[in-house]
């Protein structure tokens, strides 16, 4: 029986997809990262999928950090007029649904990341901090939210974003007001002397993911990363 080339190609795709399917990861919270197939997948390379997964993880960690900061610092979301930490977090990440049209992506993240530490700053410090981090990390992906065969990602930008995040994490652990209190509460110690380092773990994952992807892109593009560090005292960030 003769089959048309189109039919044969379709059968090959179905067979390939069936062969690649496997059991999803069983997570503690019951969530799944399995993505349904769409025709867009046909114009993506393996590296494009890797980049998208890393970016989604970055956004997820930033969202987790935002909610944790708001819960530890409830006065901040009240400054912005929200009814809860969850509502303030949802509002900050809502522009990602149409990121190319969002005004948020045009924020000067280098300046925004300096605002939460100013003694005279009266606004929502969590919003300023997480706005800056979100825009910086999205800039490291050239503000793209989907990646295809001709989409370019710069390993240097990813590396620089990781170093800038290290500087922010250092500032968070050291910045105090005139009364000697932390400007933003994060890690803590309970009455029994047991440390809660959940913020530190999230920042560590954020940095590690960007560094790993930078290494992958560096190897793929054959463009060596120029290693640099941020002067944490002056908070002069590496460019992206």
Account of the protein in words:
The protein is mainly alpha-helical and 240 residues long. It has helices at residues 5-20, 46-72, 74-79, 85-93, 109-112, 125-140, 155-174, 198-221; strands at 188-189, 195-196. A two-stranded antiparallel sheet has the order 1-2. Helix 2 packs antiparallel against helix 4 (85-93), helix 2 packs antiparallel against helix 8 and helix 6 (125-140) runs antiparallel to helix 7 (155-174). The N and C termini lie far apart (58 Å).
Cα gyration radius (Å): 21 Å
Give the averaged pLDDT, no decimals.
Answer: 87
Global outline:
globular
Structural class: mainly alpha
Order of helices and strands: HHHHHHHEEH
Please give the count of helices.
8
Weakly predicted, low-confidence segments: 5-21
Strand content: under 5%
The helicity comes to 40-55%
């Amino acid at each position: 029986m003769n089959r048309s080339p189109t039919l044969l190609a379709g059968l090959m795709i179905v067979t390939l997809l069936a062969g690649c399917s496997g059991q999803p990861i069983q997570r503690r919270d019951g969530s799944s990262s399995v993505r349904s197939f769409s025709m867009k997948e046909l114009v993506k390379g393996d590296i494009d999928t890797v980049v998208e997964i890393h970016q989604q993880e970055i956004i997820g960690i930033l969202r987790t950090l935002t909610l944790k900061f708001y819960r530890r610092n409830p006065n901040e979301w009240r400054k912005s007029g929200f009814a809860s930490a969850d509502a303030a977090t949802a509002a900050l990440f809502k522009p990602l649904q149409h990121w190319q049209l969002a005004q948020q992506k045009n924020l000067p993240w280098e300046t925004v990341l300096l605002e939460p530490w100013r003694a005279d700053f009266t606004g929502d410090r969590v919003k300023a901090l997480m706005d800056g981090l979100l825009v910086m990390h999205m800039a490291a992906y050239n503000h793209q939210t989907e990646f295809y065969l001709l989409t370019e990602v710069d390993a240097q930008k990813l590396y620089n974003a990781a170093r800038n995040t290290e500087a922010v994490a250092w500032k968070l652990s050291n910045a105090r007001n005139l009364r000697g209190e932390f400007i933003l509460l994060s890690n803590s110690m309970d009455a029994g002397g047991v440390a809660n380092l959940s913020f530190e773990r999230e920042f560590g994952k954020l940095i590690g993911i960007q560094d790993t992807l930078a290494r992958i892109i560096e190897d793929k593009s054959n463009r060596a990363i120029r290693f640099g560090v941020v002067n944490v005292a002056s908070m002069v960030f590496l460019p992206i």
